[in-house]
Amino acid sequence: VVVLRLDAEQDQAFQSKWLVRPSYGYGNDDSRPCLLSAVVLAVGPGSYAPRDPFTHLVPAGSFCPTELKLGDRVLVNKWLIEQNHVGGERLLFTREKDIDAVIENWPRGK
Hints:
With 110 residues, the protein is mainly beta. The protein has helices spanning 8-18, 28-31, and strands spanning 2-5, 35-42, 46-48, 63-65, 73-77, 82-86, 89-93, 99-103.
């Protein structure tokens, strides 16, 4: 999945208004937000379910199509992405399973 991060001002305004974060009290590093607000730019066809004995949601080896759509607004963990500069823009690459949330009825800015 390829996503484009929203600008920092729009991201901070959304997250401070709509997300509740737990306070762990372990110091400044652990209290920093690790979710990034982004828009989906491209998605692949899907992936095959792992052959893992602990995964029973879908049969091992079956094809799971992508549920994300272009233009979806998502929250991505910043530690689970790969960043690359393409055409002057910083694009983020991640797997669908690493996307924390898809936001419906995303509040639009002015």
